[in-house]
Amino acid sequence: MKKIEQRALVCRILALLLAAGLCLFLIRYFRSAGDWASSPFNRHLYNTEGQLAAGTVLDRDGDRLSWVENGKRTYYDGETVRKATLHAVGDLQGSIGTGALNAFADKLTGYSLLNGAFGAGRGGELYLTLDARYNYEAYQALKGHAGTVAVYNYKTGEILCMVSAPSYDPLAVPEDIETSDRWKGAYLNRFLSSAFTPGSVFKTVTLAAALETIPGLELRTWNCSGSVQVGEETIACSGVHGEQDIGDAFANSCNTAFAQIAAEMGTDTLKRYTERAGLTGSYAVDGLPTARGSFRWEGMTEGRLGWAGVGQDQDLVNPCALMVYMGAVANGGRAAEPYLILRTKNALGVPSLPRFSRRTGTLVSAATAKKLADMMSANVEKTYGAGRFPNMDLCAKSGTAEVGEGQTPHAWFAGFLQNEDAPYAFVVLVENGGGGNAVAGTVAGKVLDVIVNGY
User: Fold this and answer.
1) How open is the CA angle 75-78-79, to the nearest 5 degrees?
2) What's the pTM?
């Protein structure tokens, strides 16, 4: 009798293990079956050269960016468009992880849980949220500089423009791409996968923290004589601004005022508001994780805190996260999370279901967002020149980020439009480009002019 009971117990344990294993497999199947089906090991989906031999990538207007012709994958006819959309579309070798040919291969094969990869020889259609023309204009505006340009709809989440440079023609890969400094980081999507010293664009976070934690901030003044001693550090400014209130200090991008404000608030406050702004987290853009920003708060001295408050010290910010923060300021504290896939059609021609936008948490309070927006609008009127941005209700902040002795600073320009029919947030980074307003602001103006005015 004991033997029967023991055997029954063993059988029950084995049955439970089998059920647990089946449940685990089903969970992994529902999560990863598309990746399994579109893996390069699935040879009937790839040609002899290792290229995905199924599916078409299109922009939001239906312009084909990459498709299969006579068994080989090809790209848009214009070389500049190929370069401008490379990090969104992907290359033939699979070196660019954020490209659709690599990241969204299951969508291109038309895979579904119901039909599997049936009809994959014909493939599916993947429409990106991008407009190829906007990418073209952004790539041209960078004029060969390394950097990134992105624009998205902060109400819906659609990324309209996403350019990373340096880039190259996927149909004519440079022979020295692995060895020449000219192509350094060419495989990297700087918008999604990198973090950079932000410079003065970070003052938007310092200002948000100060507006909520320093009583009477808007009634106070600061005197700028070109530099100020904060703790053990001498904080240099870009000019001598004299007596100024917080609005003028922000428009002047005054380092002396903002370093003193950061030191007054303390490390814990600035850290809390940086994290709240989403600058240390990561977004998933259709499953593509963005790089996390990093800030060395541990052991922060008063002087280092002054530098951190103006976006220097060891501050690093991801361009996508900064763009979303700009969208949240524009939209009353919360913004739509960004995405790249507009819609798909599987191999049988069945379209995907309409997608619903997801929103961030509260990155900034509604009242503070309104004040920030007003002050960023004043920046354009007082400093950047509203005439450079016709028909745009523009709010912006520039940044000139020092990145080391003997190196030209990174140029930043970030902000948003409040036009009813153009709810767009944007970020521009020109690596070693120089002045934020003069260089990155000019790039932003050219791209936004095309988007808003159609020029």
Assistant:
1) 85
2) 0.89
pLDDT tens-place string over residues 415-445: 999 999 999 999 999 999 998 999 999 999 9
Distance (Å, whole) CA 399 – CA 196: 12
Residue with tokens 């409040």: 418
- At residue 38, does pLDDT exceed 50? no
pLDDT digits (tens, 9 = 90+) for 132-181: 999 999 999 999 999 999 999 999 999 999 999 999 999 999 999 998 98
**What are 300's two structure tokens?**
């922060």
Residue written as token pair 């523009």: 394
The tokens for 332 are: 């009353």
Rounded CA gap, 159 and 175, in Å? 32
| CA–CA distance, 379 with 372 (Å, rounded to integer) | 10
Q: Which of 363, 372, 376, 397 is nearest to 200 (CA)?
A: 397
In Å, what is the CA distance from 357 to each residue of 58, 191, 279, 338, 364?
21, 20, 21, 9, 19
Retrieve residue 444's tokens: 């932003």
Q: For the residues of 295-334, what is the DSSP string, one character each?
A: ---TT--HHHHHHHHTT-TT-BB-HHHHHHHHHHHHTTT-
